[in-house]
Amino acid sequence: MRSPLHRATAAACLLAASTFFAAEPPPPWAYGFKEPPPPGTAQVPPGKAGPPPTDPVKHGLPGTDRAFTRAEITDIFAPADYFPGEHPAPPEIVSHGKPPVVWSCARCHYYNGQGRPENAGLAGLPVDYFIAQMQAFRNGDRHSADPRKPNTPMMIEFARGMTDAEIRAAAEYYAAQPWRPWIRVVETERVPQTTISAGMYLQVPGGSDELLGHRIIEVPVDPESVEIQRSPQVGFIAYAPVGSIKRGEALVTTGAGKTVACAACHGPELKGMPLPNVGTMPGLAGRSPSYVVRQLFDIQHGHRRGLHVELMKPVVANLTTDDMLAIAAYLASLRP
Questions:
Q1: For the segment 207-217, what is each residue's pLDDT rounded down to a tens digit?
Q2: Domains plus CATH for the chain?
Q3: 229: which DSSP letter?
């Protein structure tokens, strides 16, 4: 039996750790920024769509004879679908949203649910988990640690504008599509020079390179296809510090004395599994490292609440942002 002194010491250590982490700014690279937010930064309002592009040029993609203008590609209520034969018929909320407030889900997450680093990959998420997250947005239980990130308040607004039936329809649609390989992790010390467009890192055309440091930078394999055509078939390269995958493997598979093995809740292959009295835990293998780090940091700093989050709180309590980076690099390197 632990002595009162032992329990008091442990509690003091936990309090000291929580106080330390509470003062830590969110890692800007995971949230789509170059620098951390200044102290006292106010929460930005939900992002809004700009005026439709007027360029009449139509853009195609390999593997399809369909072509669309930029206005059609970026339409928030009917985004272009280059490959309609490669996914099930989407429900109305996915293909057209719910004007004037709720955008089409496919506008940001694609019809195949693969998504991009600045948002979430939805393909293969368990139906009950998807619904729980939308309810968390709706109920004010899910926010971003970086108040400059505009798509989190957008999701809150969308969730509040959707019915339970519409949320379930979107959940079932995306759950029916498998998460497929989307990210290639490359360990390196230097990365292409980048700029940021709507929360996503893009290579600077003709740019030099720069030190990576303690970051993971996700960039499209083909920037033009992703930025201009919003291709749902072009994935990403995740540049990670040298040694990240090996260090992350130790944290993920054994806990490395700082946490618990992820397989305990996310399944032996980290592809998700049901937990009694909680629901289905999502798969982690092959997911965006930027997204994973955002969720770990948000949970650690109290920006997310819910049944799944309560399980995760002790898991993330002692992790540093470098630990989170390593975990995310390893998970992204796994085949879904």
A1: 999 999 999 99
A2: 59-175 (1.10.760.10)
A3: S
